[in-house]
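Box 3.1 — From sequence to structure: 3-isopropylmalate dehydratase small subunit
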Amino acid sequence: MGDSKILTGRAHVFGDDVNTDYIISGRYKFKTLDMNELACHCMEDIDPDFASKVEPGDFIVAGANFGCGSSREQAPLVIKHAGVSAVLASSFARIFFRNAINKGLPVVECDTSQIEPGDDLEVDLSEGKVRNLTRGVEMDIAPLPSVMMDILADGGLTDYLRKHGGFKL
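Predicted structure (token representation):
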């Protein structure tokens, strides 16, 4: 992602241990495969109004262990289809982290304690910074390996492999 793409949006803040059932409830798993329809139910068990409040480019901000629980790929896809540009958390469940990268959803590991609901944020993945424009605070991002940045830049693992015919390590 050498083009230094900067993401901007508002923060939607959640706590620790947000599991994949909270992201998209299992009760919808077999009802439809339409990600746009499933996105209407994103985070609804924690915040029933989330899907109606989120705007394209906004961020989900959480504490520790975001995406714990089952390894459903629908979780990062639903977040992406809801219009969220990235998830910021102090830590991620490993399977969710990899699924998010593979699906082209940026996941940003950083200190989220200085971000409040509704804060305006700017995330620069290339520079490794999160700027809370509302509070005038800047946080460093745990850097992603260059291959993960390339996967995100190409829109996910499938598009990356199509473009490069394999991994360019």
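Summary of the box: The radius of gyration is 15 Å.
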